[in-house]
Amino acid sequence: MIADILTGAIRSGTSVMIASQGELISERAGVINLGTEGSMLCGALGGFAVTVWTGNPWIGTLAGGICGLLISLIHAFLVLSCGANQLATGLTIMFFGMGVTAFFGKNFVSQQIVGFNPVPIPYLSDIPFIGKILFNHDPLTYLSLLLVPVLWYVIFRTRLGVILRAAGEREEVLFASGINPKLVRYLAVLAGGFLAGIGGAQLSVAYTHSWVENMVAGRGVVAVALVIFASWKPLKAMIGAYLFGAAQALQLTVQQQGLAISPYFLFMVPYVLTLVALLIVERRKQSQTPEALGKVLAGSS
Amino acid sequence: MKTRNNGMKSMIVLVLALMIVVTGCSQPGSNASTSNGGNTNASDQSVSDVVAGLDSSAVGFIFVGTKDDYGYNQAAYLGSVAVEEAYPDLKVIRAENVPESAEAERVMEQMIQEGAKIIFPTSYGHLEPALNVAKRHPDVLFYHQGGLKTAENLGTYFGTIWEPVYLAGVAAGKMSETGKLGFIVSVPIPQVLLNINAFTLGAQSVNPDITTNVVFTGSWCDPGQQANAANSLIDAGVDLLTLHQDCMKTVVETAERSGIMTVGYHADANELAPNGWVTGSEWNWGDLFVDMVKVGTEGQFNGSKYDGKYRGTLADDVVKLSTFGANVPTDVQQYVEEQKAALLDGTLNPFAGPINDQSGSVRIEVDQVLSVEDLESTNYLVEGVIGTIPQ
C-alpha cells in the first residue's frame, strides 16, 4: 500500500512539481505569479493541440511550454512595465487562461493523441519496492526528476543563480554591476511560465492523454503556495509537490482498503495541506523570503 | 511597523488560502446538489388554457459538457440529431457547457426568446433552473433528463440503465480472470449506487466470489482524477474497469494502454479500446426524443406517458447494450444474449432476493419485487463491493 501511495504521489504530483519549480524561479527574482494556473491550462491545451496536429508529443510539450510562456509574458508586461499590482494581475491572468482555453479547447475534447507512455527503465525498474516507485514513469516525469538538482545547482552554485537571487534581494546591487534587474525579472517570469506550461502539458500529453475544460483543477494555485511552503528551495518544493500527489493518491487507496474515512474529507486533504503550508509561512524567519517578494506580500510594493 | 507588515501579510495569505479552497471545490461539471436552495415545489400553474409546447417552432437542448465527450452529453447530443433529422422544419438550438447554476436559466430564457417552446435540460443539476424557468413560462414544455421532481409543464425522463449495466456485469464476470473489477464513479447519488449494485450482481451471477472496487472521484469529468483512480485500481489488481462518469475517454484509454479490459457507459467507445473493450451500456435517446417532440408540438403532453417521471426500458430500446469487443469470445456473447432474453421476457430478475448489503444485512428479501422508485432511491452497496459510500 505504501508503494502504491508513493508511486501515485509521483504520478499525480509531477505536473504540480514542474510548475512549482518554475514559480520558484519567478519568486526568487521577486515576482509572484498567481496566473500559474492560467499558464498550466494554456500549456495543457497547447501541448495537446500541437500533439494532435504533429503527432509528436515532444513537439507538443515544447509548444505547451511556449503557450505557458506567452501567458506569463502578459503578466510580466503588466507587472514590470506597467507597474500593476502583482496579485491582482496574476488572478486576472488565471481567469483569462481558464476562459481562453475553455473557448479554444472545445474541438479537442474528443481527439486522441499519441502521447507519452510509461517507460520502465531496464534493470532499475526491477528493483523491489523502489523500482516501481521511481523507474516506471513517462519521459517527462524522468526529466522533471532531473530538473530539481539542475535547478538547485544553477540557483545556488552559479553566477546566473546569484544574479537571479540578487534581483529578488537587492536590485541596487545588480544596477551597480551593470545588469538590468527588470530584464532579469522578465526572464525569470518567462522561465516560470514556460515550466508551468510544461507542467500542464505533462498532465494532458503524458498523464491523461486528454483535454477537458479546466482540467488542471487548481494545481497551479497549489504550485504557488507550495513555493512559499518550501521557502523557495527546489528540493523542498519537490517534496511538497509529491506530498500533494500523495494526498491525492492516499484518498484513493484508502477508499479501496475499505477504511471508513469519508472520501469527501480525503478530497480536502491536498488543499488543506496547502493551507497549512501557507500558515506555516507566518512562523518562518522573515529572512528567508526574497526581500522584493516580501514587499509584495506585505502590500508595500 | 513589523506588526503592520505582519498583519498585511496574514491578510494576503488568507486570501490566497481562500482562493485555493474555492478552486479546490470547483470541479468541471460537478453535481451542484445544493443549487438554488429549496425554493421550488412542484409548481401548479392554474392557467389551464395554456398548452405547453403546442406548435413550437424550435426545440432547445442544453448540455452540461461537450457533445463529443464519448459519454453522457454525446448520448444526449445524438438524440438531438435524431430530432433534427426527423423534423427538418423545426429549428434545433443547442448550448454546450452550460453549468448547473443560474446560468442555465439564462440560457433557457434565451432559447425561449428564439422561439423554443420545448426545451430539453439534459443534466441532473439543470433541474432546479428548469423548474424556475418553467414557472415563469407555462406555455413552454420542459423534458428534463433524470430528475426526480416534476411540474405541470415539466416532465422528467430516464432509462432503466441498470438493465444493460447488469448484463454488462455478466459479461465482465465471464471475462475477468483475477475476479477483481474496478468501478470509477463521481458522487454517491442513488442512480450511481444502483449501477454499482447492478454491475456487481451481474458479475456475481457468473462468479459469486467476484469483487468490485469502487472509487469516488467527486467529479463527473476530471481527467487527472480519473487517471489517478484508474492507475490506483490497476495497481490494486483489477483486470476490468468500468465507470459512471460523464466522459469516458481518459479511463478507457488508460485501461487500454495498461492491457486492462473495459466496460463502457453512456456511449459506445469500442474504437477507443480495440483490444480491451468488452461491452457497455448506452442510451438510445433518438427515438424517444422524436416521440416526445411530437407529443409536445401536438399539445398532447398533459396526461401522456411523459407527464411525470417516464422511464424507458430495455424492452423499449431506450437503453441498450453496446457492441461487443473483438476479443470477446462468441460463447460469452451468446451467454449474455441469453441472459438478455431472459431479462426481457421476465424470467430473470436482476434484483432477486435475498440480497445483502456490505454489512451483511438483508436489503432485498426473497420474492420481494422492487419498483422503479425503490431502485432509484438506493442508498447502500451490495456485498462484494469494496469501498465506502462518502457521507
Q: What CATH architecture label of chain A applies?
A: Orthogonal Bundle
Largest sheet: number of strands, sense, barrel closure of chain B: 7 strands, mixed
Low-confidence stretches of chain A: none
Q: Report strand % of chain A.
A: under 5%
**Cα end-to-end separation of chain A:** 48 Å
Mean pLDDT of chain A: 88
Please give the radius of gyration of chain A in angstroms: 19 Å
How many discrete domains of chain A? 1
Output the number of helix runs of chain A: 13
Q: Could you give a short account of the major beta sheet of chain A?
A: 2 strands, antiparallel
CATH topology of chain A: ABC transporter involved in vitamin B12 uptake, BtuC
Q: How is this structure best described in words?
A:
The complex is a heterodimer of chains A (301) and B (391). With 301 residues, chain A is mostly helical. Chain A has one domain: Orthogonal Bundle (ABC transporter involved in vitamin B12 uptake, BtuC), CATH 1.10.3470. Helices cover 74% and strands 1% of the residues of chain A. A two-stranded antiparallel ribbon of chain A has the order 1-2. In chain A, helix 1 (2-28) packs across helix 10 (219-229), helix 7 (159-169) crosses helix 9 and helix 11 (234-256) runs antiparallel to helix 12. The longest helix of chain A has 28 residues, at 181-208. The radius of gyration of chain A is 19 Å and the shape is globular. The mean pLDDT of chain A is 88. Chain B folds into two domains: 58-159 and 285-312, Response regulator (Rossmann fold), CATH 3.40.50.2300; 162-283 and 318-386, Response regulator (Rossmann fold, 3-Layer(aba) Sandwich), CATH 3.40.50. Chain B is of the alpha/beta class and 391 residues long. Chain B has helices at residues 2-25, 72-86, 102-113, 127-136, 162-175, 190-206, 223-235, 249-257, 285-297, 330-344, 372-375; strands at 58-62, 91-95, 116-121, 141-145, 154-159, 180-185, 211-216, 240-244, 261-266, 277-283, 309-312, 319-321, 355-356, 362-364, 385-386. In chain B, helix 3 crosses helix 4 (127-136). In chain B, the strands form three sheets. In chain B, strands 12-10-9-8-6-7-15 form a seven-stranded mixed beta sheet, sandwiched between helices. Chain B has a six-stranded parallel beta sheet with strand order 2-1-3-4-5-11, with helices on both faces. In chain B, strands 13-14 form a two-stranded antiparallel sheet. The longest helix of chain B is centred in the first third of the chain and has 24 residues, at 2-25.
